[in-house]
Amino acid sequence: MKEKIYLYYTNDLHSDFSQWSRTAGYLKNLKKKREIRNDAYFLVDAGDHMDRVHPISEAFMGKANVQLMNEVGYDIVTLGNNEGITLSHDDLYQLYNDAAFDVVCANLKHMKEQPPNWLLESKIVQTKSGISIGFIGLSAPFNAFYELLGWHLTVPSEELEKQLQKLKGKTDVIVLLSHLGITEDQELARKYAEIDVIIGGHTHHLLRTGEYVNNSVITAAGKHCKYVGEVILTWDHDEKKLNHKEAYTTDVSDYPYDPDTEKMLSGLQAEADKRLDEIAVTLDEPLEVHWFKHTPIMQALTESVKAWTKADCALLNAGLLMDHFPSGNVTYGDLHRICPHPINPVVVKLRGDELMEVIRASFKSDFMELKLKGFGFRGEVIGRMHFAGLDVATKIQEDGYELVTEAVFNNGAPIDRDKNYLVATADTFTFGRLLPEIARSEVKQYFLPEFLRDLLGDALQSFINKPKST
Asked: Above 90 in pLDDT, residue 401?
């Protein structure tokens, strides 16, 4: 006799709740279909369901995401870096207290206290017919951030090996929920033939019909849950083994909205609006924001970051601010709307020649106009760089390019090309190759759990009772 086991999954929603109601309705209908047919099925998520870019996630510190997953009826999830490093220690520790599902993440460790009750390394579930399935979770080890929050992530491959040994002889099928990215998933599949299925995320890759590596089928459903993933496993009860694996993703971006989820989202939004309606500051006059011009508010934020981090100088890009500030009351909801990014301040050590190269690169039009996606940035373009502690002079050349003619410290001291300086900036630039000198710096001090918007309120204070411009 052969039996099919169905695994349905999501990954990397990033709190895109404009899509969630469609996704939820599709999943609910799948569950009903399987229950009517008495099929074995499990609903799982591979992390980054939450993103504090959305006011609901911001106001509830991720707990509303858990409520939404409870409402759909998830069985097992792992957590991504957005759950892991954009929440304070206490908020993460309590995040899944009310979860009606299991949370597996084998490489997440607590550094001081007992781990939270919800945290499991792996989970064995059994179908009605007696097939045992082991679920293991792994998440990307951004320890430069995690350890500042009281957590540590062990090496994923080492932890995976431990869990495979632990589950050996106890399970018929092994499923890995991976928030490591496609390259890591492929490497683990090649190394460990015991893994039957890898449901992945983090790098937002879309595998429409899966990818077969060694003994594993690897699958992932892109981002924002516009696709829902499905894995179909065929178990041969006579031979007592899996004899077939299939993986698919389905575009649900035009699926009907689910009325119950819509009602729940509406209620959560109303409550979020109330929570974020507290007044942060009252401005005497409006403050304009321009992505490609120097503005007083962006300069004030850059100055605030320099003072708060005690760095020698600071640089921040104007694209961090998404809208103008009106006169009158500015609420915490306004701060979140105008600066929605889960970006932390960071201080890096740069030699003077590296600092000069960063300054020059920041004035290139292709840098300022880059439509950046990812690295914590949730805006449109990088925008013009602002500097604190430095006076930077430029000129426009005949070809239209802006050239740096001089850069000195505010006291007139030149930048010594061989001297080391502490430079404060957005942690965005420590990833990838946006500004290679910053990414390559061997000294990086991240500041957590504060986001840049937490310092934005301090920057706005400097405009209170300031003489009005004429």
From this structure: no
CA distances from 29 to 41, 42, 85, 262 (A): 13, 13, 33, 16
Rounded-to-integer distance, Cα 199 and Cα 116, Å = 24
Per-residue pLDDT band at 470 (split at 50, 70, 90)? very low
Angle between helices 296-309 and 452-461 (to 10 degrees): 110
> Rounded distance, CA 77 to CA 96, Å?
11
Q: Which residues contact 425 (CB under 8 A, 6 or more apart)?
A: 305, 314, 315, 316, 345, 346, 347, 348, 438
Architecture of the CATH domain 278-461: Alpha-Beta Complex (3.90)
Sorted by where each begins, the domain ranges of the chain are 2-272, 278-461
pTM: 0.92
Q: Which residue has the tokens 């120097």?
A: 294
Chosen CATH of 2-272 out of 3.60.21.10, 4.10.410.60, 3.60.15.10, 3.30.70.3400 = 3.60.21.10
pLDDT of residue 112: 86
Residue 462: pLDDT band (50, 70, 90) is confident
Q: Determine the Cα angle at 343 with ends 433 and 425, to 5°.
A: 60
Give, to the nearest 10 degrees, the angle between helix 17-37 and helix 259-275.
140
Q: What is the pLDDT of residues 14-65, one digit of tens each?
A: 999 999 999 999 999 999 999 999 999 999 999 999 999 999 999 999 999 9
